[in-house]
Amino acid sequence: TFFGYKQGRIASSQSYDLLHWELTGHELSIAESSYYQRRRDPSVTWDENTQQYYCVMTVRLPGPKLHQQGAIALASSRDLRHWTDHGVVVQDLQSDEPECPQLFRIGQHWYITASIYVR
């Protein structure tokens, strides 16, 4: 499983019985990116067509208005160890950070869902 961790890093944990979990360390983390103020709520999806994993995550971009810098970013990996950051894929800048983005495919189309809150 993947989860947001301190300093914008996306960390992971693993279990062999779904009862006992342990951190996997930096080798299975998505390294922090300096242009995000914060990252969290990662969701990892396997794409059979491209033979790689995609991770969408909530991010907060730097800026003067705290509750108007929300976005969703994307990273990809072929092995869950080496990630490529693709940057922001959904940006509103009028909303707070989106909650729990999910990426999925129906037929030939990809969709992202998230809970978006506007003050």
Characterise this structure.
With 119 residues, the chain is mainly β. Helix content is 0%, strand content 51%. The chain has strands at 2-4, 10-14, 22-23, 38-47, 52-60, 70-77, 83-91, 99-106, 109-115. The strands form 3 sheets. The protein has a 4-stranded antiparallel β-sheet, with no helix packed on it. Strands 1-2-3 form a 3-stranded antiparallel β-sheet, with no helix packed on it. Strands 8-9 form a two-stranded antiparallel ribbon. Strand 6 (70-77) and strand 7 (83-91) form a beta hairpin. The radius of gyration is 15 Å and the shape is globular. The relative contact order is 0.18.
Main features:
mainly beta, 51% strand
Task: Write the topology of this structure.
Layout lengths: L1 E3 L5 E5 L7 E2 L14 E10 L4 E9 L9 E8 L5 E9 L7 E8 L2 E7 L4
Antiparallel strand pairs: 1-2, 2-3, 4-5, 5-6, 6-7, 8-9
The strand line-up of the biggest sheet is 4-5-6-7
* Rg on CA atoms, Å: 15 Å
In total, the number of strands is: 9
Give me the strand/helix succession. EEEEEEEEE
Give average pLDDT, whole number: 86
Structural class: mainly beta
Uncertain residue ranges: none
- How large is the count of helical segments? 0
Main sheet, how many strands, which sense, barrel?
Answer: 4 strands, antiparallel
The rounded distance between the terminal residues' Cα atoms is 31 Å
What proportion of the residues is helical, as a percent range? under 10%
Beta-strand proportion: over 45%
Can you tell me the overall shape?
globular
